[in-house]
Design the sequence.
């Protein structure tokens, strides 16, 4: 911040009176106070996110109790191995994001950029696997709507699966509606997150976050870990209802 | 490479953390940096939890299948919140905020479910 127009403080206060880091906004007493306020604000945002996903989890809980057999049959059409791989990939991306926050704290610019890029790569792998899963659902006509095909649930090709009466088989559409709504909204959060990560990589390469200005990285870390937590619940609830 | 000036000067406005007149950091919170060793340990715990939840889903647990799966998921989430999200090292304000979020969610679930369960009470 050397050659630029004079900042507010440089105009109104003589040098030395208001020495503080370049990232500190003038309405905060200290950088620490600003950091705490930003962290608190981020948590308030995450509370609204808990309630946002919470409504979907509540709907899932109720319909799972009402149409349990349909939920079991729908769940067993998902690939357990792809779900497991994605869980490991996403928790891995949380680890690299946590390491990115650490790298910013200890001001290691190279490590910070590397961990942010690693988080992007793992996030893309997750979305890629999710795309493969979605594509299969479209091919099998397991997407709720006019072209939904219940034959697999009425006459299962796998003899270990329990055949469902037609009315219960139709209720698998509720399972798949919730499956697409919950994983879709989750994936949408990740796409937004990946966009922000690309911005952070650009700024991190310029050295913005290894000056003590950890706050944006730290707050984004909170967001990314929250998205990870949502998946930690989605994996058993959607993939592992009854796997015998 | 670096376009930004790193401030190394002590901020004269940073108050003594234990000064009673300190209003900007009333909890005297020292900033805590969580290191790679902790993160790797938590990652290992999360991996074990992930394997456990798959193994548990294949065991004949009957009606306990869902509670066991949720218990493992909650345990994993607690580790993420406390360590990856630094809540263990955060101020009481942040701890209270997080608790308020999960408490509000529990109201959503408990009130809604008690309504649905009691509507047709005795008719099943």
Sequence:
């Amino acid at each position: 911040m050397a050659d630029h127009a004079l900042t507010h403080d440089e105009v109104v206060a003589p040098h030395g009176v208001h020495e503080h880091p370049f990232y500190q906004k003038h309405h905060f007493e200290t950088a620490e106070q600003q950091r705490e306020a930003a962290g608190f604000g981020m948590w308030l945002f995450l509370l609204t996110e808990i309630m946002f996903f919470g409504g979907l989890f509540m709907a899932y809980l109720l319909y799972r109790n009402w149409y349990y057999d349909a939920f079991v049959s729908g769940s067993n059409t998902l690939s357990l191995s792809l779900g497991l791989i994605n869980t490991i990939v996403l928790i891995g991306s949380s680890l690299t994001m946590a390491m990115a926050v650490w790298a910013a704290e200890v001001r290691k610019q190279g490590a910070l950029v590397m961990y942010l890029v690693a988080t992007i790569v793992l996030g893309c792998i997750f979305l890629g696997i999710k795309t493969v899963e979605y594509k299969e659902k479209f091919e099998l006509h397991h997407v709720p709507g006019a072209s939904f095909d219940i034959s697999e649930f009425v006459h299962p090709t796998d003899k270990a699966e329990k055949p469902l009466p037609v009315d219960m088989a139709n209720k698998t559409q509720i399972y798949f509606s919730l499956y697409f709504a919950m994983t879709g909204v989750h994936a949408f959060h990740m796409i937004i997150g990946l966009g922000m990560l690309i911005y952070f990589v650009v700024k991190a390469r310029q050295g913005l976050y290894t000056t003590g200005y950890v706050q944006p990285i730290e707050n984004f870390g909170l967001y990314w870990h929250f998205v990870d937590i949502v998946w930690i619940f989605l994996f058993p609830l959607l993939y592992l209802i009854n796997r015998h | 490479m670096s376009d930004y000036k790193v401030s190394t000067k002590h901020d004269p406005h940073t108050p003594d953390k234990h000064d009673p007149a300190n209003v900007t950091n009333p909890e005297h919170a020292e900033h805590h940096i969580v290191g790679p060793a902790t993160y790797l340990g938590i990652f290992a715990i999360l991996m074990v939890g992930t394997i456990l939840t798959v193994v548990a889903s294949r065991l004949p647990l009957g009606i306990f299948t869902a509670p066991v799966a949720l218990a493992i998921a909650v345990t994993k989430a607690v580790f993420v919140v406390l360590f990856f999200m630094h809540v263990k090292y955060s101020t009481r304000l942040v701890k209270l905020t997080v608790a308020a979020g999960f408490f509000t969610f529990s109201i959503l679930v408990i009130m809604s479910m008690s309504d649905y369960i009691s509507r047709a009470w005795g008719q099943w």
In short: Chain B is about 55% helix and 0% strand. Helices of chain B lie at 36-58, 65-84, 92-119. The mean pLDDT of chain B is 84. Residues 33 and 89 of chain B are 9 Å apart (CA to CA).
